[in-house]
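Subject: Interface between my chains keeps coming out wrong

I've been trying for a while to get a sensible model of this assembly. When I model each chain on its own everything looks fine, but I need the whole thing in one frame so I can look at the contacts. Pasting all components below, labels as-is. Any help appreciated, I'm running out of ideas.
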Amino acid sequence: MAQQLTRNQSLVLDALTHAEGPLSAYTILDKLRDHGFRAPLQVYRALDKLLEFGMIHRLESMNSFVACSHPDHHHHDHGVTAFAICEDCGQVTEMHDAGIEERLSVLAGREHFKTEKTTIEIRGHCQNCTSG
Amino acid sequence: MAQQLTRNQSLVLDALTHAEGPLSAYTILDKLRDHGFRAPLQVYRALDKLLEFGMIHRLESMNSFVACSHPDHHHHDHGVTAFAICEDCGQVTEMHDAGIEERLSVLAGREHFKTEKTTIEIRGHCQNCTSG
DNA sequence: ATCAATTGCGTTATGCTATAACGTGTGGCA
DNA sequence: TGCCACACGTTATAGCATAACGCAATTGAT
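Reply #2:
Try treating it as a single job with all components included. I did that and got this:
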């Protein structure tokens, strides 16, 4: 069941998995130069596939990428994802909530809008950075 | 009460108000060349102010901007905004829903996360483009 | 009135993000 | 064997955003 990844895809996924927070494509490129990466497209192509497989997420509000925090059940098993992004430490928390999905579904339905992909990103400050 | 805009800010706001859909900063620049605009910063500086005034919104998922559809009550009077973005015709619908705000508030609270700004963008197909 | 602080403006240069377009190599398979 | 699909590598280019500089106009306190 687990998707068989190519070498480039594995390298990019590893970089994201081991990172503290989200990484931009060019940051990934720099991290992988020692492994033979030389051009942005090598990263973007791998990212596209990993997104397709549901193994990583793209954070639209900061043009960067994170490994999915539910590595067990890939493939878009989980519905809408909301991200809490700390502007101080960069930490990203992945959240799921049926209530939100329900409300979004109602909103879209009211407009007769056919949803393909939903982005929810909350910018703010995480517990650690607030308590200090 | 209405914010007094500078010439550049007015021009940018007009461009967005009269546009069919969202515009990128560089598209705005091109539209305003006849009015003396020559550099991206002229656009970005105006956009920053208009965002600050709550007169326009930034669509993170497409790096572009739209005029707020509630021009009456500026200044962030309305809470969280969700955008339905049609991938066929580019039309953007602005939506508000207390239920979503409530759920997001609960989610954030559960993580002890202090929310500064929330982005909700739904990509898909609008009624017109679906029915055809 | 004047000085200082703020704000907007214009320009040049630069950096970051993403994709187009081309060709190569490999593995599966009729 | 010939075809197809796919991943890959490379070069070039397009699209998005900001840094850093200096000037001009405004405000507002003294």
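Reply #3:
Confirming on my end. The beta strands of chain B are 56-59, 64-67, 82-86, 92-95, 114-125.
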